[in-house]
Amino acid sequence: MQRPQGAIKSVRSSTKHSDRLFTLDLCNGFCNLRLYSYLLILFVLPLILSGLRGQDILNPPLSLRIANYEIEASLDTREKQLRGREIVTWSNTDNQAVSELRFHLYLNGFRHKSSSFLSGMSRRRLELIKEEDLGGIDVTRLIVNDQWDLGDRIAYIQPDDDNPFDSTVISIPLPGPIRPGKTIQIEIEFICRLPRLIARTGYQDNFFMLGQWFPKIGVFKDGEWNCHQFFRHSEFFADFGTYDVNITLPVEYVVGSSGILLREEQKDSLKTLSFRAEDVHDFAFTAWPEYRRIMKMVNTVEVVLLYAPEHSAKVSRYFDIIETALDYTAQWLMPYPYPQLTIVDVPLYAYSAGGMEYPSFIICGSAWGVPESMKFFLEEFTMHEFLHQYFYGILASNEAEEPWLDEGLTSYASQKILSETYGLHQSASTFLNILVGAFDEGKKAYMRRPDVSITMKSSWMFKPGTYYVSVYSKPMLMLQTLENVLGPACMDSIMSAYIQRWEFKHPRTQDFLDIVREYSFQDMQGFIQQALYDSVVLDYSVASVQQNRDNAGTLLGTDITVRRLGNFTFPVEIEYTYTNGHAVLTEWNGIDSMMVLTVGGPDPVISARVDPGQKIWLDVNWTNNSFTIKDNPQALYRHWLKALKMYQQILVGFFGF
Amino acid sequence: MSIIFKALRRIFGLRKFILVIGAVHTVISVCFLLPYNKAFRDFFSHRQVTEILALQNLYTYYAEFYQRMNEQVYSAMTWIQMGNLSHYFLMAFLTGGVISVMLMTGAVNVKEFYRNCRYYSWRMFKVAFLTPGILIVLFVAGVLLGLPLILFLPDYFGEDQFFYFLLSYSMVIGVCILWGLLILDIIKVRMIENNEKKLSHMLLTAVQLFIKNPLRLTGYYLMMLFIWLVFVAGYWIFQDFLSDRSAGGVMVELLIFQGIVLLQLWIRFARYDVIHQIICSSDITDKSGFHLPDQSMHRT
Asked: Is residue A492 part of a domain?
């Protein structure tokens, strides 16, 4: 499919403000529209896309397409309800027969305050949720292969925690087995009562974000269903397939979703939008009358941005960062495989909808007036959600059982790109001249609670307050350390091999470790084992540098004492420097709790550093990595002066009577 | 503007007392900041990262410092809060002296200044205790007065509109707080001018004085606030140019900042004279005149 390069389209589904928006875009100076490309996209693209109905967009298919959905959904924006009907065409690709079906009803996580999802929230937060703001999903009809009406056989099950209040998984015993290789069709009718925005799902006034809104079949593998309940931290795992989704809703709503829009039909005050997504494992959409919509071709990807009107000044920042991301990942990992990417910039009042990823659909957020120097609010956010397209979207690891494979790798990859684009210690913020790097934020979170939990456990096993550190920060720092030790070239090979070998195949942790082993020139398995499967802390320190002299004052040698303060063992480099500035690098295996390095000779050593290149980001305290006999009092004085000035100013300003 | 220049000139005449107040201010700052600086020194001494810290404002190392020295930093914060409180009451003590000397026509030495400080100290402390109460009341009044602004918000409002709404709302609250500060300053001036001990009476008088002449008082008071803010902002913007990293450079910067503090005190004390002039020049003034604690101090 040929698309004009660099062209921008700015349209709104509602015709009400289209003129205003066009003027707005011109005024922004962002579009710099060329009339011919605008007209080309406006008229030719819908024709091309309308011809795609019933045809494959991605040919040949990228995945096995085990679970394929055709969904008709009608959103009642006044009652905050959605009525849906889906036909799931599902193939048993396992070598064992299936005697029951299992479906996720994720929306039921918000049905009851004692559900496994909501009971995982803090009591204080839970108290703020009113009963009338809860939501849920009911399956009203379920027919298999047009012959078995199994609606009355549906049973709620709780395979993970036996919580009787949880209704996020249903089991449907089948009248007969489905043999390996067979395909069935399951027709389901359902009604969703949407919750007020919670965990990126639901409504806020006339804003809608629908994620995990339809009954979704589990994964059948090795003779059993992998269909976990919905917990506070657990995310998703599903088979790839195609999604043909028709959504009916009031005409004034602007919609963004996974996949591409094939056509739009209007009838009275309602419109029906037809979407198709291929080789994906989920489908989500958002609807809000106030969205502005703008489109731009970036390489071969049609990037659609839906943004809150007051964020129009942020549009160029979104496109800049996504262009950086698409270019970088195309070189580093693999080109983004889908024809379209939809980015949603949510308004501040619906901010809790932001920070989520679905296939070819990411939900970000920013705020009016946030300066460019605060990159963590837009660039970092967008980059992170975009990188999920690879680790959550294309690889589709089991996020419920091994969440680090998505969040950890995504965090590492996004922070790496940001660091290389904006600078290691400047990629998150330079606001008020305080330099914050994207990795620095992760390091801060990790060093506050480094031993709180192991990383390798299922998402529902994490205690409150331990998930982020264990699943995001720690693996991110582990991978950054790995890159520093093995070198960027080696790490790049590992990452690209991992993505390209396992695309659309649901890799596990062992698959990643196998690739690390294959590409590493040194054995890193011990390091990874400690980082992922243990909660030990890594902290090496230079305790002292002591010059030994005889009675006459002649220098005999210098003792450098290096300590291992944590139980994490890792070989470290030690650098000591003579008074003349000459530096010597040596290595210590780091196994013992202490090592005294004696440097003989008449030349005095004045300082020593462990891990001088700051390769080990898992080290919880970098400050104690160095020791110098020749202190730098000016640095302390400057800090004192800075603190004194601040304090004196506060006293004069606020306590000056 | 002549009122402001006159006030600045008159307060400049009290420079030796401002110098004393500045010295007190510096001593308090240094003393109560010591625990924090000690924690910083304990953590960073003999560590090479101090060199990096001196060059760049790196979040990671500060994060490590606050993480590892949490206990010491927490205890240092308690000291800092004690410093705030001590400074507040010491300034209340000294302000009585400054206003009384300002109202006198002759030369006054430091000893007499101290006697005046002592004489008015209890009254000033009472005002100091009253200050948070009055400010809270006026804050609440500002919140209530600003409520009708909600009516100007459209059905759907973006963050930009909400920002301007909040800005307007905070301006309403800010003006109320400013009036509170103004009334408190009128109380201080009138209390010394009339040698009045009864705070409630003075509060009533101050409110009456303010109600009779609100625009002039608010305008000049705002002007004084503006001059001070511009001066402070100007210094903090241009302070980066004073970034000599040697020990001598640090000393020079420290001295310059002490000068800046003195200038700030000068501008801030001038507001009392502005209030005094406005009150005196208007026909609403109570003609009872200025009563000194001790007539022997009155030199002509």
From this structure: yes
Comparing CA positions, the residue from A510, A403, A418 lying closest to residue A459 is A403
> Which residue of B30, B91, B236 is in closest CB contact with A656?
B91
Q: Using one digit for the tens of pLDDT, what is the confidence trace for A387-429? A: 999 999 999 999 999 999 999 999 999 999 999 999 999 999 9
Domain locations in chain B?
Answer: 2-286
DSSP secondary structure code for residue A350 in this structure: G
Which residues of A268-355 form beta strands (DSSP E)?
Answer: 270-280, 285-288, 292-298, 301-307, 340-346
Quickly count helices (H) and strands (E) in chain B. 10, 0
User: In whole angstroms, what is the distance from residue A641 CA to residue B257 CA?
Assistant: 10
* CATH number of residue A451's parent domain: 1.10.390.10
Chain B residue at shortest CA distance from A426 = B58
| Residue A431 DSSP label | G
For residues A650 and A643, what is the distance between their CA atoms, to the nearest angstrom?
11
- Among B43, B92, B246, beta carbon nearest to A657: B92
Q: What is the pLDDT of residue B249?
A: 83
Residue ranges in chain A modelled with pLDDT below 50: 1-53
SS3 content of chain A, % helix, strand, coil (to 5): 30, 30, 35
The three-state secondary structure class of B161 is helix
In a domain, A375, yes or no: no
- Among the partner-chain residues B91, B232, B239, the one whose CB lies closest to the CB of A655 is B91
pLDDT score for A207: 96
The angle subtended at Cα A603 by Cα A602 and Cα A605, nearest 5°, is 125
The angle subtended at Cα A226 by Cα A225 and Cα A228, nearest 5°, is 120
Domain for residue A511, yes or no? Answer: yes
Window 193-232 of B, Cβ < 8 Å to A? 232
**B30 contacts chain A (CB < 8 A):** yes
Q: What is the total count of domains within chain A?
A: 4
Distance in Å, alpha carbon of A35 to nearest chain B alpha carbon:
31
ipTM: 0.89
Distance between CA atoms of residues A26 and A32, nearest Å: 7
Pairing of strands A81-91, A67-76: antiparallel
CB atoms within 10 A of CB A499: 21
CB contact under 8 A, B51 and A639: no
Query: How far is residue A619's CA from residue B65's CA, in Å, rounded to a whole number?
Result: 14
Mutating which of B28, B29, B94, B256 best tests the A interface, going by the most A Cβ atoms within 10 A?
B29
Do you find a cis peptide bond into A60, omega within 30 degrees of 0? yes
Both tokens of A165, joined, read 């209040």
Residue A341 lies in a domain: no
For residue B53, give the nearest of A609, A624, A639 by CB distance.
Answer: A639
C-alpha distances (whole Å) from A15 to each of A135, A198, A266, A607, B199 are: 32, 31, 12, 70, 67
Q: Do A233 and A58 form a contact (C-beta atoms < 8 A)? A: no
* 3-state secondary structure at position A185: strand
Other CB atoms within 10 A of residue A88 CB? 22
In this predicted model, what pLDDT tens digit does every residue of A264-322 receive, in sequence order? Answer: 999 999 999 999 999 999 999 999 999 999 999 998 999 999 999 999 999 999 999 99
Which residues of chain B carry a pLDDT beneath 50? 284-300
Taking CA A51 as the corner, what is the angle to CA A47 and CA A53, rounded to the nearest 5 degrees? 130
- What range does the domain containing A451 cover? 404-533
User: 109-168 in B: which are within 8 Å (CB) of A?
Assistant: 128, 131, 156, 158-163
Per-residue model confidence as pLDDT tens digits over A614-650: 999 999 999 999 999 987 777 788 888 889 999 999 9
Both tokens of A419, joined, read 């660091």
User: How many Cβ pairs closer than 8 A exist between chain A and B?
Assistant: 170
Chain A residues within 8 A of B268 when measuring between CB atoms: 652, 656
Q: Which two tokens stand for residue A162?
A: 């036996």
Cβ contact A310–B264 (<8 Å): no
Distance CA A31, CA A302 (A): 15
